[in-house]
Amino acid sequence: MYKIFTNKILPAENIAIFMHINPDADCIGSSLAMYKFLTNLGKSATVFLEPENLLRKNLEFFPNANIIQISNNCSKTVFDLGICLDCATIDRMGKKSANIFLNNCDEKLWIDHHEYIDKPPKKDSIIESHAGATAQILFKLFENFDKLAIDNDIAICLYGAIAADTGVFSFSTTTNETLTIASKLLTYNINGPEIILKVYKERTIGEFKLMASVLNNAKFYFNNKLGIITFKQSDFDKTSTKITSTEGIINSLIEIDEVMLAIAIAEENTKDAFKISIRSKQNINASEFAKYFGGGGHKHASGCKINKPYEQVIDNILNYSEAFLQKSSLE
Ligand SMILES: [Mn+2]
């Protein structure tokens, strides 16, 4: 695993880093940590983000967040290496980013902690599905490659990314390894509580209002085993928020004692396109649920996209959930 990283990084001088659409704290933190690490090694690095994907305001504190470029800015440059981070499918990168990754990068490297539907070639990928965050894998790679090239900026990015993706070290993905790495990161000159406040707790007033109204309209089915919340474009418009503002709100639903499966449906900017986030607990497998709809993820947190009118989305989810919950309760 470490050999792949060493072999790809050593000869590369000009490197492109790619995020997924609607990037979350793990994705942004990992990308900016990778950027700084490569820069510290004397390499040139560019971080790309698909057009019309802004960072959530609370994540702009990550060091070097200002260097992120929009993907249509560089169609002709050729990179020695393209690194795709935290991105379970090529579609998740967005069209423009995927185009640069596939056509303008001589070598490719995927680093991720999601289960893939179409696995990238083994020789080009480092995938650890047990890891709580992509940033957790990056720390091990960095430490192994050149520990001295890790600095405070990198520690802030990695700590924030790991804290956010593990629900501040509370999800079932939090392991001995997660906490060992977090503890090593705290030996750098960083402010742990302040980082956690920024990546996980802080909301704008608009985001608070969005959360309040969406949770107020939550619907429950099958003896409260299933909870569903819906974010419509009109909710975003009313509260001056964006789809990235939905992050974490679904957790309030799965925290309800009776709810075993929580689903957030968020309307995207295009017609009849919905981003579905899924959370579960105990033996209910969110990843299996997402796979049925062409997505993927982890046992207790996953996602997919459904491109249909809203009423059909709800119908499909309810139909599948009933059988799915019944089957899971027998296992
Ligand atoms: Mn992640």
Description:
This protein is α/β, with parallel strands linked by helices and 331 residues long. The protein folds into two domains: 2-201, inorganic pyrophosphatase (n-terminal core); 205-330, Diaminopimelate Epimerase, Chain A, domain 1 (Roll), CATH 3.10.310. The protein has twelve helices and twelve strands. It has helices at residues 2-9, 25-40, 95-103, 134-146, 152-165, 176-185, 192-201, 205-216, 233-238, 251-254, 286-292, 310-330, and strands at 14-18, 44-49, 69-70, 79-85, 105-112, 125-127, 219-221, 226-231, 261-267, 274-280, 296-297, 301-306. The strands form two sheets. A six-stranded parallel β-sheet has the order 3-2-1-4-5-6, with helices on both faces. A six-stranded mixed β-sheet has the order 7-8-9-10-12-11, with helices on both faces. The longest helix is centred in the last third of the chain and has 21 residues, at 310-330. The relative contact order is 0.11. The site of manganese (II) ion (MN) has 6 residues, from loops.
